[in-house]
Design a protein that fits this description.
mainly alpha; 0% strand; IFN-response binding factor 1
Length: 137
């Protein structure tokens, strides 16, 4: 009677014999022929290079008036696509400056103005929905 897992033999196949694995004997590996002093100097050279080259930091450039106006237009168009009348979309846009500034201050790694416009639209749409629920929209 077998106590471990079994392997079924197929016609014409030979059963492989396995031996237990010894956990006490460490594997035999050769030590690299590279001298430690050679690798140490490589690390020192890398550190020197890092110290002489300034670390690049990504700066977010200030948004130009064109960007603001472009985003305003995108958000206004989105309200129109959502079925808002011209008057209703203008009312919804009254908090644009506040939400737009919030987006600039808090949204990171936006590569396209359209993504920022979507964030602003969602914020304004949320404000609009809150006003409507409270009876002020």
């Amino acid at each position: 009677m077998q106590t471990g897992p079994s392997v079924k033999k197929r016609l014409g196949q030979v059963e492989n014999e396995t031996a237990p694995v010894s956990h006490s004997a460490p594997s035999e590996t050769e030590v690299s022929e590279t001298k430690y002093s050679e690798t140490d100097s490589l690390f020192i050279e890398d550190e020197e290079d890092r110290n002489t080259h300034p670390i690049l930091k990504r700066k977010v450039e200030k948004v130009t008036k064109y960007d603001r106006d472009y985003i305003w237009g995108l958000v206004q168009d989105q309200f129109r696509r959502e079925g808002f009348s011209e008057t209703a979309s203008e009312i919804a846009m009254t908090d644009f400056e506040r939400i737009y500034q919030y987006a600039l201050d808090n949204v990171r790694f936006v590569r396209r103005a359209e993504v920022l416009a979507e964030f602003v639209f969602n914020g304004l749409y949320s404000v609009w929905n809150n006003r409507v629920r409270k009876g002020g929209g």
